[in-house]
Write a structure and sequence with these properties.
- By secondary structure, the chain is α/β, with parallel strands linked by helices.
- 26% of the residues lie in helices and 31% in strands.
- A seven-stranded mixed beta sheet has the order 1-2-3-4-5-7-6, with helices on both faces.
- Strand 4, helix 3 and strand 5 form a beta-alpha-beta unit.
- It is globular and about 45 Å long.
């Protein structure tokens, strides 16, 4: 995945992320792979994104283009999400004027509304069963 930047030249200079086509392919090399990385690799293999975003300490796992719009997707391996844990996602949404984002996690389907922005919380198993965003 390429780091999202407005210009192609800047994007090509920034660090890239590599994911296995399926997390099972990583186990021979990393037998102690943590659940968070497994979940992230699973979501990546279903979404097939081309970009992620990182700026200093902030990061958004995946950026997916849907209907001509950018949809940021964050993957968490928790059952509860607090607004404070989504500060990088909210920052990205404000910076690039994005109204909707998705967090895939181990909890129940829900929504977080922040003024004119919506963060949909989607259960991991539900997403894997029917990967629609």
């Amino acid at each position: 995945l390429h780091n999202f930047r407005p210009s192609i030249r800047a994007s090509s200079r920034k660090g890239k992320k590599i994911y296995p086509q399926h997390p099972a392919l990583a186990f021979p090399f990393y037998p102690d792979l943590e659940i968070g990385r497994i979940n992230e690799a699973l979501v990546c293999s279903y979404l097939e994104p081309t970009k992620y975003w990182r700026e200093r300490e902030r990061e958004v796992d995946f950026l997916v283009e849907r209907n001509g719009k950018l949809l940021p997707v964050e993957v968490k391996s928790k059952e509860r999400i607090r607004k404070g844990e989504l500060s990088a996602l909210v920052y990205f949404m404000r910076k690039y004027r994005i109204k909707e984002a998705v967090v895939i996690y181990n909890g129940e389907r829900n929504e977080i509304r922040l003024k004119s922005k919506v963060i949909r919380l989607v259960p991991l198993l539900e997403f894997l069963w029917e990967p629609k965003l």
